[in-house]
Design goal:
Blueprint lengths: L3 E9 L3 H9 L3 H4 L7 E6 L8 E8 L2 E13 L3 E8 L4 E10 L5 E10 L3 H35 L8 E5 L6 H10 L3 E6 L8 E4 L4 E2 L9 E4 L12 H23 L7 E7 L10 E2 L9 H11 L2 H5 L3 E7 L1 E3 L4 H11 L12 E2 L1 E3 H13 L5 E5 L5 E2 H12 L9 H8 L1 H8 L3 E2 L2 H5 L9 H9 L4
Parallel strand pairs: 8-9, 8-12, 9-10, 12-13, 13-15, 14-21, 15-19, 16-18
Antiparallel strand pairs: 1-7, 2-3, 3-4, 4-5, 5-6, 6-7, 10-11, 17-20
Length: 459
Amino acid sequence: MLAQTFERNVLLPVSSHEAFAWHERPGALQRLLPPWEHIRVARASQGIRDGSQVEFVHHLGPLPLRWIAEHRDYRAGYSFRDIQLHGPFTRWEHLHQFESQGTSQTRLTDHVEFQLPGGAIGSRLGRALVDNILQRMFHFRHRRTVADLTAHSRFRKRNTMHIAISGSRGLVGSELVPFLTTGGHRVTHITRTQSDPDDVVWDPQQGQLDPAALNGIDAAVHLAGENIASRRWNAKQKKRILDSRVNGTRLLCEKLAALQTPPQVLVSASAIGLYGDRGNETMSETSDSGEGFLPDVAEQWEAATQPASDAGIRVVHLRFGVILSPRGGALAKMLPPFRLGGGGIVGDGKQYWSWISLDDTVSAILHALMTDSLTGPVNVVAPQPVTNREFTKTLGRVLARPTIVPMPGFLARLVLGEMANDLLLSSLRVAPQRLLETGFTFQHAELETALRHLLGRST
């Protein structure tokens, strides 16, 4: 039986040498996995040279499916091929071809040949489904590849950096690491549990972090902290949230300051929760902080970086808004009820939600690392905040689902307690003034564009 084919190409905004190098670097595979798919890399050899292998685990509901592929026909700067050794297809071969289009552009062609199981009947029944999956997947892959290469090319005249990252396996960190390594940067993980010989182990609660392990780093990104929405708030949980941020930040900054050659820059997480519930008022980085638990946490969190500032390290406080990703955070929790048609506004729906896509989040971190004029607070939000009502209607439209099941404010408070007021019902209309002033370009300035990209629902 003849193989079926699928082909799609894209024009990349870099030379063929740089386009091919991006695909060879650690992290490229992770950057190309569609975020709406329940798929992870279980095992992978380094690189894409002949004989290297990768094993995926793809979950279809509760069922894990293994897919093992091997790289072959490696031609440096020109092409490589993936061959399925074990997986859902009778045959699968994926050829990646790179054709130079002058000195600063490359045509990438993805050519796939496959056979579905079940012979002629399986082919007739499954071809439309597979075509749809491949169209969505390669549309996403090509958009992300172009965006990543564009983001890194802005700083091609700068030297690559050795960057230490805490919280590197959280929602933001797990996407930031491959984004940086595919750009040629070296990453060291600051982690509680060592899984790689190069990891730096720390224990913020016990004040343990060997500064010698941080010698030679050019920059640090601090993302670690207790998930504020992981469990219902009480006095004990609120103390955990505060201590995890303040104690960990102070410990890291004291150790960085004690180095003989401190890093050039520390990019430290914070949150727009610092501004408190402000109704329709638009917040910029110069706005005063609000009142309440989250503003107090954010103020102390940012103040804990003082030892690094005193040592002459450029410190950037990234005040994150609602970070959108189907792999975690608020959007991941909203998707199940919305997909079942059970979504709706929260409270009166008039409260502003200042959001940002995960793609723009990691790009903003790179921008902060590389922009010497950027210091102090930086609002990491998209330029077009929306009300909860607008967010609800947009998500429903992208998913093609009704949004007629509201959650009244009293019910949100009953279910979540105090957390509901700060995370769901408060209004934060925040502008990314410092990002825009320093030339940052958003890939997803509009909510619907962001959701369609993240959920594979592009029109």
